[in-house]
Each structure stands twice: as structure tokens, then as C-alpha cells.
Recover the amino acids of this structure.
């Protein structure tokens, strides 16, 4: 039961890191034009 005192805060911190990473990717332009990259691979 004591392990929950460690695992619950760790999982909350992990969720915040994941949300922060997705937020950063969206706001830094990672998903602006995803179709252009697929076409670029085919055209090379």
C-alpha cells in the first residue's frame, strides 16, 4: 500500500510531462502541414 504514495505522484508528473510535450509540439508548428512531409518523401 505504501508504494501508492510513490506511484500516484509519479504518474501525475508523467501526465504533466506528456501534456507539456504535446502542447509544445502543437505550438511550435510540428503539426502545421503534415501532408507536405509525406509528399516530400515521395518526390525525392
Amino acid at each position: 500500500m505504501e508504494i501508492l504514495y510513490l506511484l500516484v505522484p509519479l504518474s501525475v508528473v508523467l501526465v504533466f510531462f506528456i501534456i507539456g510535450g504535446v502542447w509544445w509540439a502543437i505550438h511550435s508548428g510540428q503539426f502545421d502541414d503534415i501532408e507536405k512531409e509525406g509528399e516530400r518523401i515521395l518526390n525525392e
